[in-house]
C-alpha cells in the first residue's frame, strides 16, 4: 500500500512538472518528457529515480525531497501564464492610490490575487484535469497526449488575452517565421507576449484608479494651501476622504467585478 501511494504521488508530481516545463519550453522536447514520466511512474525494485539513472540507489525520503525541490519552481512558472499578474499589479496600484502604504498588507493582496486567479482559471483547470490529468493517471493516455491536451486550454486562454502587436514583437526578436494560425504560435513567443500584455492592461486599469484619488489629493492640497496649513502633510488629511469615497462607491465590488470581466 505504501509503494502504491508513493507511485501515485510520484506520478502526479511528475505530470505537473512535465506540463509546466513543456508549456514554458524549459523541457528539451516531448520525447524526453515522455521518457521521464514513464520512468517516474514505472515500478522500481528499490523505489529510486530511474529516469535520472539512479534506480535502486536513492531512498524514498530523498526522492520526495527532489520532487518537492522541483515543485518550488512551478509557482513562478504558473504566474506567467495565468491572470495573477494583472490582478496583483492592479491591487498594488489601488493601495498606492489610496496612500495607505501598508493597507491592505501584502499577504492580503497576494492571497486575494491567488483566489481570484483560481476563480478565473477554474474552467481551464477543470478542462486540464478532465482531459489530461485524470486519463493519464488512470493510464488511459500517454504523456505526449496528456501534454497536448493540457496545453490546449492554457494556450486558448492566453491567446484570448494577448495582443497581435506583442506577438509580432517577440516573433521578430526570435527571428522565427510568422505563425499562420494561433496553433502555430510557439510557447516561447506566446508566454512573454502574454506577460507584457497583462502588465499593459494592469497599468491602464491603474491609471483609471488613480484619477479620482488624484482629484481628491488636489482638492485637499488646494484647501490646505489657501488656509496656510503648510506643516500638515496633505496625505494625512486626504486619506480619510479617499477611504470614504472608495466605500461610498462600493469600490471593492466595482474593482473586482471589472477585473474578472476583463478576462471575459
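Sequence proposed for the structure above (264 residues):
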Amino acid at each position: 500500500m505504501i509503494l502504491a501511494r508513493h507511485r501515485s504521488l510520484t506520478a502526479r508530481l511528475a505530470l505537473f512538472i512535465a506540463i509546466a516545463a513543456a508549456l514554458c519550453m524549459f523541457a528539451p522536447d516531448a520525447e524526453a518528457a515522455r521518457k521521464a514520466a514513464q520512468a517516474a511512474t514505472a515500478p522500481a525494485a528499490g523505489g529510486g529515480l530511474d529516469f535520472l539513472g539512479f534506480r535502486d540507489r536513492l531512498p524514498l525520503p530523498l526522492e520526495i525531497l527532489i520532487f518537492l525541490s522541483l515543485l518550488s519552481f512551478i509557482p513562478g512558472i504558473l504566474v506567467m501564464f495565468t491572470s495573477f499578474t494583472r490582478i496583483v499589479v492592479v491591487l498594488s496600484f489601488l493601495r498606492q492610490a489610496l496612500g495607505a502604504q501598508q493597507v491592505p498588507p501584502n499577504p492580503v493582496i497576494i492571497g486575494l490575487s491567488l483566489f481570484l486567479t483560481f476563480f478565473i482559471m477554474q474552467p481551464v483547470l477543470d478542462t486540464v484535469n478532465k482531459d489530461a490529468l485524470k486519463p493519464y493517471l488512470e493510464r488511459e493516455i500517454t504523456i505526449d497526449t496528456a501534454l497536448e491536451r493540457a496545453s490546449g486550454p492554457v494556450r486558448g486562454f492566453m491567446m484570448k488575452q494577448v495582443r497581435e502587436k506583442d506577438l509580432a514583437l517577440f516573433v521578430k526578436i526570435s527571428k522565427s517565421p510568422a505563425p499562420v494560425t494561433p496553433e502555430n504560435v510557439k510557447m516561447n513567443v506566446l508566454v512573454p507576449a502574454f506577460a507584457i500584455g497583462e502588465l499593459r492592461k494592469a497599468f491602464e486599469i491603474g491609471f483609471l484608479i488613480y484619477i479620482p484619488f488624484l482629484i481628491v489629493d488636489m482638492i485637499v492640497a488646494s484647501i490646505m494651501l489657501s488656509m496656510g496649513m503648510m506643516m500638515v502633510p496633505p496625505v494625512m488629511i486626504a486619506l480619510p476622504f479617499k477611504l470614504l469615497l472608495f466605500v461610498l462607491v462600493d469600490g471593492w465590488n466595482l474593482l473586482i467585478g471589472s477585473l474578472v470581466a476583463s478576462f471575459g
